[in-house]
Amino acid sequence: MQSGWAGLGEQLASRLRKLDLHRQEDLVVHLPLRYEDETRLTPIGVARAGFPAQIEGEVTSCEVVLRPRRQLVARVRDDSGTLVARWINFYPSQQKQLAVGRRVRLFGEVRGGFFGDEMVHPRVRNIDPGEGLPEALTPVYPTTAGLGQTTLRKLIDRALKTVPLQDLLPEDARRALDLPGFAEALTALHHPAPDADPIALENREHPAWRRIKFEELLVQQLSLRRAYNARRAREAVVLPARQQLTAGLVRGLPFALTSAQQRAVGEIAADLGAAHPMQRLLQGDVGSGKTIVAALAMLQAAENGWQAALMAPTEILAEQHYKKLAAWLEPLGVGIAWLSGSRRKREREAELARLQSGEVLLAVGTHALIEDEVALPRLALAIIDEQHRFGVRQRLALREKGAHGLRPHMLMMSATPIPRTLAMTHYADLDVSVLDELPPGRTPIRTKLVSDARREEVVGRVRDACLQGRQAYWVCPLIEESEALQLQTALDTYAALSEALPELRVGLVHGRLKADEKSATMAAFSAGELQVLVATTVIEVGVDVPNASLMVIEHAERFGLAQLHQLRGRVGRGTAESVCILLFAQPLSENGRARLKVIYEHTDGFAIAREDLQLRGPGEFVGARQSGVPLLRYADLELDAGLIEPARALAERMLRDAPAQADALMQRWLGGRESLLRA
């Protein structure tokens, strides 16, 4: 994208680009963080310690003192008293500015000092006697090193005079929501009147803020709905529901589909039968049965003679899917290829040849599926499990393998439920199916919070459960900074538990193990040959051992809520009562305490996701998707939830009835950054 900073100098232009400011229009919507009141003067004698104030007076002394450290100290006097001003970091030009006899205005916080009231590092300005005061509050903008507030204010003021600020919202929509005009809202935020409510401005509750937030939400909806409509205009392979293989699979299952699964299967089947590419998110809590829904979608492609591929983020999860699908589908005469980075070259080449020839229609794998040598000449359906673990490029790479240049149907799956407000904004370009009930027979999991000081008791609890015929997971702490340290902790824990539990068989699985060793350990645990499995977070998703009824998570305070919920979901998959013990170390940070409280009080993934969104904010919650979604700068998904539905409805209407206005709005806010309309 072209930068609009010709004539500004490269250094200043590069600092503006750091703030994502590329054109004059971007400056107009670069809004203040807070305000300072320079519209009034406070006599020095009545300025109160602990409060910001603006004083005006004459410099009576100014010197560089060397003790207790080098600093510039000036005294300023007015008719009511004298104030000391100190600068620990200063420039020679400041010393000139504070020459004895000069008239100055200082703005800063007053505090009690050794020589009386003082200001440390106040803002200073030379003035002429009788010079007037500003008529509006002074905005303080988000900035970056080397770009001062004065420069930024001048640039923004110039942009406000040169950029057209016409109102692009339909008048009836603006009136219905009681929103001020665009130019009026910007003036109120960049130059608030002295009588404006500073608390409403700083808390972003002022009507002008409401206008800006609504417009930002509207632009996000416009961009995502336009991407959605563009996809629906493309062609895809039509895969009608033939009810041959799919009906055979449902008949042969040892369980009945829940009504939520039946609903999702119906929605996906209808999408696959359409001539445009499906773009659907299947979300459901841990254990809600997404894999069988994916299997039925894959079979719908196969019974039409087309290929389907399922990509998972970890080897353990991909292999688990492969084994489950093979057990369900091979009795129906449907073969599945298994692709992972760890397969032997000869096996891998055989699988690739079977896929390339079209002899095998279904494939399951890790990132290995998107490598160049993998050819899927009849690919019509791509399924991505735990889609938030993949970046935009990886999702695109699988899509690019579509047959005959046609877009494959895409199904994204996630066991991290997405709160409704987030689904309506950041995922508005997807159709969403929700599995909101668990299969019958799943036992509720009890969660216990236990201090690290009681570790011996927890080891005893593991012993008792395993001697009664059950199995247990022991998850090692997450150490973000160092994979090596995390591995060492896992090895130490394995050694300590093996010693403390000599009567039990203990296994170890971690990310550095070779895939066949990992696979063998998991198979031994699944078969009941190992009673305790010490693991890093590689077991976070997809592992299904119904006999495991106890989960211990060490240093639970280090984990995110979604991870804790996923890990806890590895137990409670059979009929025995299951327990998840969260071991935590003192002292707990406020954030750590808040997360543990949420996971202790809630078992519903959607409730946990809502709390997580409040604790972390949408940017972090969305994760890898960030690289392609216009994130919100001003609107708050919780506080401004009431604006999302009207924004969505207006976006649909504008795209239909006023496309030129919709384009102008997107240009104003996104500046042609169409990379935001992504996979």
Automatic annotation (TrEMBL):
GO MF, one example: DNA binding
Span of domain Helicase C-terminal: 468-619
Organism domain of life: Bacteria
Pfam families for this protein: DEAD (PF00270), Helicase_C (PF00271), RecG_dom3_C (PF19833), RecG_wedge (PF17191)
The keyword ATP-binding appears for this protein: yes
Catalytic activity annotation: ATP + H2O = ADP + phosphate + H(+); Couples ATP hydrolysis with the unwinding of duplex DNA by translocating in the 3'-5' direction
InterPro entries: ATP-dep_DNA_helicase_RecG, DEAD/DEAH_box_helicase_dom, Helicase_ATP-bd, Helicase_C-like, NA-bd_OB-fold, P-loop_NTPase, RecG/Mfd, RecG_dom3_C
SMART domains: DEXDc (SM00487), HELICc (SM00490)
Nucleotide-binding keyword on record: yes
Keywords per UniProt: ATP-binding, DNA damage, DNA recombination, DNA repair, DNA-binding, Helicase, Hydrolase, Isomerase, Nucleotide-binding
GO terms classed as biological process: DNA recombination; DNA repair
Enzyme class: isomerase
Ranges where the Helicase ATP-binding domain occurs: 271-435
EC numbers on record: 5.6.2.4
Similarity section: Belongs to the helicase family. RecG subfamily.
NCBIfam families assigned: PRK10917.1-1, PRK10917.1-3, PRK10917.1-4, PRK10917.2-2, recG
Function as written in the Swiss-Prot or TrEMBL entry: Plays a critical role in recombination and DNA repair. Helps process Holliday junction intermediates to mature products by catalyzing branch migration. Has replication fork regression activity, unwinds stalled or blocked replication forks to make a HJ that can be resolved. Has a DNA unwinding activity characteristic of a DNA helicase with 3'-5' polarity.
Protein name: ATP-dependent DNA helicase RecG
Organism whose genome encodes this protein: Azoarcus sp. (strain BH72)
Lineage of the organism: Bacteria, Pseudomonadati, Pseudomonadota, Betaproteobacteria, Rhodocyclales
Name of the gene encoding the protein in the UniProt record: recG
